[in-house]
Design goal:
Order of helices and strands: EHEHEHEHEHEEEEHE
CATH class of the largest domain: Alpha Beta
CATH topology of the largest domain: Cobalt-precorrin-4 Transmethylase, domain 1
Low-confidence stretches: 187-202
Bound molecules: S-adenosylmethionine
Shape: globular
């Protein structure tokens, strides 16, 4: 048996704009022997089509593409412990499947690539999954990460704004933890439907910088209080279906809800991200 290592490339490909592929990503794609495309959820075919078009455009091969259906995840788990257990179980099954792919589909000495949406460093499980597989010691490989342009960078660029105000922090949070950073009109947490409450609703770090919200299945922005909060919202950013709305939250929340609902019905899925900025003023909220 060869003692050569398998080489795994984790390549950030941007969040839907083909022009956001970096030169480093293109070079990495050209070095790839086997692409592992993991699909999930209602957006699966659109996201897989995008990945396939990126491969087609930037390499002539020879290469192989191996597709994997993401194992289903139990989203009914209620409470923090059950939620954590459900995520852990799903991650383990996903790691099992990828371990098999790496061992069976990639020969020692070859390079395999995961084309990661946006940037692999932001709300993406590929790197921790590869750590888990490596720790099992069943298949040897090394890992190289190519950063990508995240949906957060793309959002800020499309709204021509920065993510932070001068000298202040910016927080990036999944929607289910938003209540810890911004006061909401309810005593319990805003959520993504995963059943995990924060029990706060008090926004104990309110006023301490701007907040970027991702993974919001439930329009959590509609529960934010305050006349001086501005929102910079974007969906399908970078794609031909891109939608952008910005303004004082109290003025534009209903419009975003409507635009969002229509788009979601049309596509069957939605990916949106937004920046919330408390300005202390009720006029233009730009940094
Ligand atoms: C699992 S996270 C992946 C984030 C990704 N690694 C990144 O760097 O953007 C998925 C979330 O990213 C955001 N997202 C990804 N692509 C987007 C896009 N094109 N437009 C708006 N939001 C996007 C949404 O908040 C979505 O729920």
């Amino acid at each position: 048996m060869s003692t050569e290592q398998r080489h795994l490339l984790v390549i950030g490909i941007g969040a839907g704009d083909p022009d956001h592929l970096t030169l480093g990503a293109v070079r990495a794609i050209r070095r790839t022997d086997v692409f592992f495309l993991i699909g999930k959820g209602p957006a699966k075919s659109s996201l897989t089509d995008f990945r396939r078009s990126v491969i087609d455009e930037h390499t002539d091969g020879p290469y192989r593409v191996v597709e994997l259906d993401d194992p289903p995840r139990d989203r009914s788990a209620a409470g923090r412990e059950a939620y954590t257990a459900a995520v852990h179980d799903w991650r383990t099954r996903r790691a099992d499947a990828c371990e098999r792919l790496i061992r069976d589909e990639l020969a020692p000495g070859q390079s395999g690539a995961f084309l990661v949406w946006g940037d692999p460093a932001l709300y993406d499980g590929t790197l921790s999954m590869l750590d888990e597989i490596a720790a099992r010691g069943t298949v040897g490989f090394d890992v190289e990460v190519v950063p990508g342009i995240s949906s957060v960078s793309a959002l800020a660029a499309r709204h021509r704004t920065s993510l932070n105000q001068v000298g202040r922090p910016v927080h990036i949070t999944p929607a289910r933890r938003l209540a810890e950073l911004f006061p909401t009109g309810e005593g319990d947490a805003v959520g993504d439907g995963a059943g995990e409450g924060t029990g706060s609703g008090g926004g104990d770090r309110q006023g301490d910088g701007d907040v970027v919200v991702m993974l919001d299945a439930h329009e959590s922005f509609t529960r934010i209080e305050g006349d001086d909060v501005w929102i910079y919202w974007g969906a399908y950013i970078g794609t031909p279906d891109e939608l952008l709305v910005s303004g004082r939250l109290a003025d534009v929340a209903d419009r975003i809800r409507q635009v969002r609902a229509e788009a979601r019905a049309r596509h069957g899925w939605i990916m949106d991200t937004y920046l919330l900025r408390r300005t202390g003023r009720t006029e233009d909220g730009r940094a």
